[in-house]
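Notes continue from the previous slide.

Worked example: a multi-chain complex. Inputs as given:
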Amino acid sequence: MNYPEIDRYASIDSPIHNFDPRAKIITFMVMIFSFVFLDSITKALVGLGIASLIYIIAKLPKAFVIPRLKVVFLFLSPLLIIMPLTVDGQVIAQYHSITITLEGVRYSSLVMIRALSAVTLALIMLGTTRFDITIKALYMLKVPGTLIQMLMFTYRYIFVIMDEFQRMWKAMESKGFKLKANRYGLSVLGNMIGMLIIKSYDRAQRVYHSMISKGYTGNPRTIVNFELRTKDYAIALPMILIALLMHTYHLVL
Amino acid sequence: MKEAIRVKGLTYSYPDGTPALEDIDITINEGERIVIVGPNGAGKTTLFLHLNGTLKSQDNTVMIFGKNLDDMKVEERIKEVGIVFQDPDDQLFMPTIFDDVAFGPINMGLDEEEVKNRVKKALSRVGLEGFEDRVPHNLSYGQKKRAALAAVLSMEPRILILDEPTANLDPKSRADLIQVINDLNNDGITTVIAMHDVNALPTLSDRVYVLNGKIVGEGTPREIFSNSELLKMTHLEAPDVFKLFKVLTCFGYDCDTLPMSIDEAVEFLTRTIESGSGHIHLHIHEHTHEEVRKFLDSYNHH
Ligand SMILES: Nc1ncnc2c1ncn2[C@@H]1O[C@H](COP(=O)(O)OP(=O)(O)OP(=O)(O)O)[C@@H](O)[C@H]1O
Ligand SMILES: [Mg+2]
């Protein structure tokens, strides 16, 4: 089956792929936060440029990043229309009582550029590491255990549940069911989702039993061997410096 | 001989009121190969959940190696009893195979070196060397099943409990798995198995318990399969080889014990032919067909 795996390209060889996962998470988080708070379009564009550069270094295929960015773009595109019409400021175009303001255009483009660079960075971060390694890195970074376990089980069982859904769907199609947006179709779909939830509940119980029988007492423990090497510092330091400089260069220069 | 498991007067109903087990008495010696058979819903899985304390009965009814299960610490318990459940997807709950197989040993408090050793050993035992970094959702069903077994073997339990280990496996995987289980038993591990696959049963058991809410039968596979009343009552079947040789006796084949498996059949046939005049003699007399029909009827569910 074809799973939309976030870590499908995690086995490519690139400096970003080989970057220590903990350092990667910290570095990328710093950059994302830095880029999200940039206050001018010029800076935001520089940020987007840097993100694109890292994307090129990471050698991730376009097919991985572009469709996902498209979703973000679609999601935010209402802003591009609404903000120029609603934000007060210098009017640059007018049609009857509808006005478009410069501030509005600026503001909405700023939001869009920041979002695109943040998402690009996040995609590179997740896309260049096997997801289980990302979880372990978070574990090493002392992210609370409950959160780690939630991530872990989501990652593990999302596929099982997708398979289950697919099987149910096939079973229904083989009995001649076609989804139509009418009352009957929706009620069948609702039943199916209900079934899925019950099945998941039963499964959760069985999984819990099997965890107990392996000595589970409430906290997840695992063995992780990550080692920070010189090259990791060599990547992390400049990136973090850039992230900081974007906000503080006027103090330095 | 040491007693590995003793269950005395175990009764259990699920919280919603479903009665599952009634007054179960079972005694299993160390090193024995036990198979538990029974129809769907007989309570096999429920019984197993009691054998390592996942489900608790009201009173102290389960003893493991002479010790009361309820008094044992978690680490101690998982060192004695390991359970492999039916659905491998329920048991591989960690992100990678390594994490899954390491899960038990880590909970036992072993150091890192030892954990890694055990993972390696367990994976090679089930023929999954080098699968450490694989993620469960990319494995085949048979591989998942073996990984689930490895995840229990890594705890090196003295008693190994398997819930339908051979279900849904292709013939080769099934034979491999049976081999692994018997090897483990030869190493001194007590094996307790629930299964519906009667043709594989004789190769995995010295003694059989028949469960149907309560224990309704106990004995060697031969004793159990000779009892057609019991089989009928519990929706069980006898192995095909066993039935075939029983039919042969109606045709005049003379043997005191019936073979349970192909291997045994070959052995018995060789013996009878060699001790006879170099051949066996089959014939039809006036009652033959009646006898055959009567026999088949006694084993038929319809
Ligand atoms: N979580 C539960 N809550 C309520 N009743 C349950 C639960 N699990 C099992 N039962 C019931 O307990 C009885 C015994 O079930 P169990 O799963 O132990 O049977 P089984 O012998 O393992 O069957 P199978 O061969 O189908 O695996 C059944 O009647 C079942 O419906
Ligand atoms: Mg069962």
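Summary box: The pocket of adenosine-5'-triphosphate (ligand 1) is lined by residues B 14, 16, 18, 20, 38, 40-46 (CB under 6 Å). The CA atoms of residues 181 and 187 of chain A lie 10 Å apart.
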